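thread: overnight batch results

M.L. [08:02]
morning all. the overnight job finished for the chain we discussed friday. pasting input first so we're all looking at the same thing
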Amino acid sequence: MGPFLRTLAHKRDLYAGGVMTLIGALALTQVHSIGTLMHMGPGFFPMTLGVLLVFLGVLIAINGLTSPPDQGDQVETKKNEWWGWACIIAGPILFMILGEYGGMAPATFACVFVSAIGDRTATWKGSLILALAVTFFGVLLFSYLLKIPFPIIRGFTL
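M.L. [08:03]
and the structure it wrote out:
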């Protein structure tokens, strides 16, 4: 393997930029009616996100190509982080289940709390405070400011 290919084998930024560019390009292929700035269509936001992802992906890939090989690119984790992976996957699943049967507040709290305890350095107290704060501001933003029709707690009216 030549030095150029050996360098490319350890370039996480190049791969990450390529994946972001690909996802952005795929998002752009799904855009239909964008409308105008005054009357935005349903495709305006996905188109904007797709363009942004392509732009950032290209910048990250260029950075990966032009930077010298980093020692951090070659470091592999010594053990798998099964607890963290399980918590990160369980958080959105809990949000979907509790959102359907419990409402926004319990779903948001469970999602944030379970995802936060997946961090190796997180404490139960810190995760609890984070989950309470995100739930409070999430309910404030989505229920009261944006008026999203998602009950705060199912079966309970305020």
